TrEMBL record:
Keyword Transferase belongs to the record: no
Domain Ribonucleotide reductase large subunit C-terminal: 158-697
Species, as recorded: Streptomyces albus
Biased composition (Basic and acidic residues): 893-908
Protein family per UniProt: Belongs to the ribonucleoside diphosphate reductase class-2 family.
Region (Disordered): 1-23, 861-922
Protein name: Vitamin B12-dependent ribonucleotide reductase
Enzyme class: oxidoreductase
Keyword terms: Cobalamin, Cobalt, Disulfide bond, DNA synthesis, Nucleotide-binding, Oxidoreductase
Residue span(s) of domain TSCPD: 737-837
EC number, UniProt record: 1.17.4.1
Domain Ribonucleotide reductase class II vitamin B12-dependent N-terminal: 47-137
Length: 966
């Protein structure tokens, strides 16, 4: 809970009118005569951030000043990301006070200069209230504000941009340039390529047009180059194509084909790791792709009828396709590689406030900002947990009144920022100043729902989320209408007044029609209803200051700044979290929301304690002592023993969407068992439920399309295999045999392999031990090693095993800790690649495409994998005198047991070394350890920590970096 002063709730309220210019600001949290900084305890801390993989220091600044209630993570992120000035110089910011003052005083000054406040006293209250809200982590502006405002560099305040491109070479080249400049500044952009004529149409010169897909290659190469030129994150971009574009099938297939290329090149020995030097040869990897579908198309899918693909220049139908087959292709591609997503054009434009100026054709990279071409949106998000109240009797309520007052305060500040903001292009600046699009949103919804005893996928959870969203947007437009009375409506309002007021009525009607569920959401709905009544009344009188007010963004870095447990509209990741400690070190804790939820559900303190202990040990609530099974769903999370169903995510998006100006940044995670039909159903229901955009991600789907891979395997099976003759006589190993024990990690799963040889030469047995004892995987690996060992002793060549078992794909899979085998498609894939490197001659394994890291490097330098004679001599001498790198010294397994049962066992079990406890560096890695699974998330380029999903982007809990706009 946020710290508040005693007495009645106070708020900033527009008292002004055209006759009485300027806002009269009332206090919400602050005390007259006392600065917010003087009400908290400050302390000095040292910020030292390292890359845990190699121990190098990424960032260091000592003696920074923060409130004592800020977490280590929040302090680290703000210090490293947002403090300005060269590290180690007197000009470097070293206190949160300096950061807040730099931003808040700039907002106050601009507000005074542009006539927002009735008096200097009101301006001072505005400054203090804004400072208090940031200081106490009640809200945060998006990252560009903290980067740029109050500095000597351009005052860019927006992270979200939409560009446009027309069917001319000049416009296409402008697109490349504008996009590049936005990427250079660390932001992202989206655009629709549907104005570019298709490859099936003619140029004025008579030749065939290239089509938008070909021009995507140039833009993708530009994005990749700018990223590799020094940025700490990938260039974020969204590319949209209309479903009636004649090149839509080629657009749908772009990433699927590139995934096939990644797999083929990796199997051939190329470095296709994230950030690997060979990955740059793969195209279309720097963008999210989405198909813009219409109601006409979706109805054709339902009816199974034909759908026309239209020429860009004339509008005539060039080709009719089966709508269901085209929809199926979209689902197959998304199932295989997560692209393309889907955007619902008619739904988006049904809620468009400015249609007379132009249609909404595209979105920003994360899909939450949708408005006019060549426009931008600055974002800010509120921390919902700061508005949850517990009274003395233990009853909970959502502080709707104070929430509304903070929304008014933040919307005022966001609108002021447009007065002084700079923009990356002149066209974007003109459109943004003319329409003044804002994107207020929230974070910590998942934590709030759990803390109040609501399942994320429940009618009660959706009702509370919808009520809060409606109150937020209604209050925002109310304040926008109040600002219009003081500083005027947006320039484009007069032309779009009828449409804007129509959309306000749509929001209000949706609010009135919503279902009220319980004592928590009903008062919020009542406050929202009052706000929308004011919107309709004041809007009719004054117009509106802003064409757009709200979105639900990923809230990546700023979510960490506010110490939020959950980002944007997402549910909780897991019940047990990773927490950094002051002075170094870390610990795992059960979410603070869990005890709150149990108290709300009526459990007694001793029951709560027992359940929390169970969660701490097991990571889930299944079979927790005293917990009723009907309450399990309250603790369902994004991952784990009880994960939320894909449709649960879609239904939550649908509950919030009618009360948002823009859309929602969210990816619907689907289990690996999901089918193409499941993806089709998600896309179909997203349209029916009224969402504006959807993206799906099927676990473990990012390398190769399953159908294509299967076809290749069938083709390979038809080829004649080399026949190897051998005598089926078992050759047992002696009691004492030389061996090598190798530790390995594949996709987070740890294990040990002991490979024992015959004294004269040749591999004779393999023993595998997984660190997760007693698991099914450990048992299967044990049985598998016995079968392989028997085969080796009967004369099956190792080469045959290697050719059969490499490239076999199943979980765990992913990155390894072996420099020679950086990526493995499974533990079996890794094992036989390692055995081939250790026991097969160079010529044999080279034919199988298996090379060591040194050999691959030699190939790059000399064009040859083979070592020189001198190098071979040195390598042989080293091999005879010392154990191999990254491997334990040779060990002799204990002698086989003498009883008959153990005597038949062909693999003598060595005393497996006790694995060192794996250290988690984020909540995602902690969850992997608890569940024994591999989360589908990239590693952070800055610090090496495994990231986690935030909306449709990824967020690093270690350093705050994101993979998209923040």
């Amino acid at each position: 809970m946020t710290e508040t002063t005693s007495g009645p709730t106070r708020g900033s309220r527009a008292k002004g009118s055209k006759a009485n210019k300027g806002l009269r600001i009332e206090r919400i949290h602050t005390t007259p005569g006392v600065h917010p900084y003087d009400e908290v305890n400050w302390e000095r801390r040292d910020v030292v951030m390292t890359n845990w993989r190699d121990g190098s220091i990424n960032f260091e600044q000592r003696g920074v000043e923060f409130p004592d209630f800020w977490s280590v993570n929040a302090v680290n992120i703000v210090t490293s990301k947002y403090f300005r000035g060269a590290v180690g110089t007197p000009q470097r910011e070293n206190s949160l006070k300096q950061l807040i003052d730099r931003v808040v005083k700039t907002y106050r000054s601009a507000g005074e200069e542009n006539g927002y406040f009735a008096s200097p006293a009101d301006a001072e209250i505005f400054e203090h209230e804004l400072a208090y809200a940031v200081l106490h982590q009640i809200f945060a502006f998006n990252s560009p504000v903290w980067f740029n405002v109050g500095t000597k560099q351009p005052q860019q305040v927006s992270a979200c941009f939409i560009l446009s491109v027309d069917d001319s070479m000049e416009s296409i080249l402008d697109w490349y340039k504008e996009e590049g400049m936005i990427f250079k500044g660390g932001s992202g952009a989206g655009l629709n390529l549907s104005r570019i004529r298709s490859s099936k149409e003619l140029l004025s010169s008579g030749g065939n047009a290239s089509g938008p897909v070909s021009f995507m290659r140039g833009a993708d190469a530009s994005a990749g180059t700018i990223k590799s030129g020094g940025a700490t994150r990938r260039a974020a971009k969204m590319v949209v194509l209309d479903v009636d574009h004649p090149d839509v099938e080629a657009f749908i297939e772009t990433k699927v084909k590139e995934e096939e290329k990644i797999r083929a090149l990796r199997d051939a020995g190329f470095d296709m790791d994230l950030g690997g030097e060979d990955i740059t040869s793969v195209q279309y990897q720097n963008a999210n792709n989405s198909v813009r579908v219409t109601d006409e198309f979706m109805k054709a899918v339902e009816s199974g009828s034909k759908f026309g693909l239209r020429a860009r220049m004339t509008g005539e139908v060039l080709e009719e396709v089966d709508a269901r087959k085209l929809f199926r292709k979209m689902a197959e591609a998304a199932h295989a590689c997560a692209d393309p997503g889907i955007q619902y054009d008619d739904t988006i434009n049904h809620w468009h406030t400015s249609p007379e100026t132009g249609r909404i054709t595209a979105s920003n990279p994360c899909s939450e900002y949708m408005h006019l071409d060549n426009s931008s949106c600055n974002l800010a998000s509120l921390n919902l947990m700061k508005f949850l109240r517990d009274d003395d009797a233990g009853n909970q309520s959502f502080d709707a009144e104070r929430f509304a007052k903070v929304v008014e305060l933040v919307i005022t500040a966001m609108d002021i920022s447009i007065c002084f903001a700079d923009f990356p292009t002149e066209k974007i600046g003109e459109t943004t100043r003319a329409f003044r699009q804002l994107g207020i949103g929230y974070a910590n919804l998942g934590a709030l729902l759990m803390a109040t005893g609501h399942a994320y996928d429940s009618d009660g959870g959706r009702a509370l989320a919808g009520a809060i969203t409606s109150l937020m947007t209604g209050t925002s437009y109310k304040r926008s209408a109040e600002l219009a009375a003081i500083v005027g409506p947006y320039e484009g309002y007069a032309r779009n007044a009828a449409a804007h007021k129509r959309v306000m009525k749509q929001h209000s009607d949706a609010n009135d029609a919503a279902t009220r569920m319980d004592d928590l959401d009903t008062p919020v709905w009542a406050a929202a209803t009052e706000a929308w009544q004011d919107v309709l009344r004041l809007g009719e009188k004054n117009g509106f200051r802003n064409a757009q007010a709200s979105v639900l963004a990923p809230t990546g870095t700023i979510g960490l700044m506010m110490d939020c447990d959950t980002t944007g509209v997402e549910p909780d990741l897991a019940l047990v979290k990773f927490k950094k400690l002051v002075g170094g070190g870390s610990m795992q804790i059960v979410n603070n929301t869990v005890p709150k939820a149990l108290k709300r559900l009526g459990y007694q303190p001793e029951q709560v304690e027992a359940i929390v202990e169970h969660i701490a040990e097991h990571g889930n609530v299944v079979d927790a002592p005293g917990l009723k099974p009907e309450h399990y769903e309250v603790f369902d999370c994004a991952m784990g023993e009880r994960s939320i169903s894909p449709m649960g995510h879609v239904r939550m998006m649908a509950a919030a969407q009618p009360f948002l100006s823009g859309a929602i940044s969210k990816t619907v995670n689907m289990p690996a068992s999901s089918t193409v039909e499941d993806v089709e159903e998600i896309y179909l229901q997203g349209w029916k439920l009224g969402t504006k955009a959807l993206a799906v991600y099927v676990e473990n789907s990012k390398v190769g399309q399953p159908l294509s891979a299967k076809a290749k395997e069938e083709k390979k099976a038809e080829e004649p295999e080399k026949v190897v003759e051998y005598r089926p006589v078992r050759r047992r190993l002696p009691k004492g045999r030389p061996g090598i024990t190798t530790s390995f990690t594949v996709g987070g799963a740890e294990g040990y392999m002991t490979a024992n040889s015959y004294p004269d030469d040749g591999l004779g047995e393999v023993f595998l031990k997984m660190s997760k004892q007693g698991s099914t995987l450990a048992g299967m690996m044990d049985a598998f090693s016995i079968a392989v060992s028997v085969g080796l002793q009967y004369g099956v060549p190792l080469e045959t095993y290697v050719s059969k078992f490499t490239n076999m794909r199943f979980e765990p899979a992913g990155m390894t800790d072996d420099t020679d085998v950086r990526m493995a498609q499974s533990i079996v894939d890794y094992i036989f690649r390692r055995l081939a490197l250790d026991f097969l001659p160079f010529e044999t394994r080279s034919a199988l495409g298996i090379h060591s890291a040194a050999e691959r490097q030699r190939h790059l330098e000399t064009g040859s994998y083979e070592a020189s004679e001198e190098e071979e001599f040195d390598a042989d001498a080293l091999a005879q005198s010392a154990p191999k790198a990254d491997q334990a010294p040779q060990v002799t397994p204990r002698e086989e047991a003498k009883d008959a049962k153990d005597a038949d066992r062909t693999t003598a079990e060595p005393e497996a070394p006790t694995p060192a406890p794996r250290e988690a560096h984020s909540s995602t890695e902690l969850l992997e350890m608890q569940l024994g699974l591999n989360a589908d998330a990239p590693l952070c380029f800055s610090c090496g920590t495994k990231m986690r999903r935030a909306g449709s982007c990824y967020l690093c809990e270690g350093c705050g970096s994101t993979s998209g706009c923040s």
